[in-house]
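Hello forum,

I keep getting stuck at the same step: I have a sequence, I want structure tokens, and every attempt I make locally crashes halfway through. Rather than fight my setup again tonight, could one of you with a working pipeline run this one for me? It's a single chain of 562 residues.
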Amino acid sequence: MLPTESSAERRLYEGFLEQLDDEYVVYHSVDWVLAGRAGRGPEQGEADFVIAHPVDGVLAVEAKGGDLSYDPATRRWTQGGRSGSHHLKEDPFHQARDEMHSLVRILEARPGWDRWRPSYGYALAMPDGTYVRDAHPGASATIVIDRDDMHRLARRVREIMATWRREGRRFGGDGMAELETALGFRVEIRTPLGLAFDREEKRILELTDEQAYLRSYVLHRQRALVSGPPGSGKTVLATSIAQHLGAAGTPTLVTCFNRRLADDLARQLDGADGVTVAHFHGLAASLAEEAGIELEEPRPDVAAAQRGFFEERLPEALAEAATRLGPRFDAIVVDEAQHFREWWWPALLATHRKPDDGLLYLFADESQRLYEGGGAWPCAPEDVLPPLPHNLRNTEAIHGFVSVFFDADGQPGTAKGPRGRDIEVLDYADADELTRLLTVVLTNLVDQEDVPLGDIVVLTPTAREKSLLWKVRRFGRFELADEPRDDAVWWSSIHGFKGLERSVVVLAELGDRHQEDLDRYIRVGASRARHHLIVLATKPVAAEIRRRAAGMIASPAPHQDA
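Reply #2:
Ran it on my machine without issues. Output:
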């Protein structure tokens, strides 16, 4: 499916994809140019859909969303939608007929036309309304797909194609191939995303290697605060420093705010001698248990008690445990340092053998701050290094998109990654349409673009108990999981995925109530995508994103309905 703002086309495509057998080939948003007849210039043709079947032939389908009405006195059609009503320039039935005849003129010029000549016809689809009576003799209900047909599209398409069937014609494989070639005049020859990612990943790794000199520079200091925009290589630098310290025999703690990031860091540092990895609260709970400190966890349904437990009680327990057990680390590396509260630092440094001047390396990005914290760093002003200048994680397209949502004081850095592809921003009206939309997105990514499930994450601004997508969990043959699995698509809140990344991010459920924090959600969530970003938002939010990021998102088909 090509990018489109037409919800009518999208719902039809989703229905065709789900209900039609594999013998059908459905082309969305096709256009072509014909050599003009004598004395006339070139003719342009276009169709919302072309459906092909090796036996039943070819069907051109014109899609019209919203309400349609016909005035026999003026012989004019009116289309109504959210933005009001307007007269159609052309009778939609005549439009579909002309599309079909234009396409047939192309096919007639292909070799072997007499041998594989198909049955052919046209149809009008109006998925928002019902059509039971002919508006005029040329507007037969027998060739209409309406709202009542959306759950039985396979049967309805067969019925309409049977209406146009001509005996003795069999399109066959040769005809299907010729149609594909004929429509290929506008096909973009491109590499599937899954393969393109490999080339881009090599370039990103080359750029990351260029930062090796920074590790040496930082390690010549006792303490350092390293800041930088999303994708500037802070986490890569942090893990590299930890590996170096551990290999040199320095007991080193690597910690962060996010549990999932800690799990990922542990996988990256698996086998590194002398390195301990734990997220801050996990470290506190573990050392408290080792020190025999009892922790009574609050009820999960009492928000204030939960907040007090994590912000106050666990840091207190960490400081007490360090006093009982004694310090055990000679170096501490902190990723996501912007999330740490000011009063957490003394508790953390109590585990350090030289809390005042020992090895301490902090990595932070104020633009990524989703929580209170940061600002009061346990290091001197001279230890604050100049910000890392470049974005090495994302493609230029993703970096450019995210940069739009920085405020005037923000520092998005400059992109050095590969160009990549434009961002897709798709809209939906309600929960059902969001469900269908995500099903199509995942199907296209896996089946058409060869993207492995493990390279995809679906991020939402809402917690699990409030997420519409998490409640559904299954989208066609795809299941969501809240942990990385080879057989499922990883789902996470934006907060929970902080510090992590994936090749493809589907940033979903951006609704009206999220507009106030839209910039922050996009800065944090969209920057998690290394190679490709797809945004699913309600119509008003999607419209705002398109307006602000014009020129950086994939353009919709030019002939869609308003």
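The mean pLDDT is 85. If your local run keeps crashing, start a new thread with the error log.
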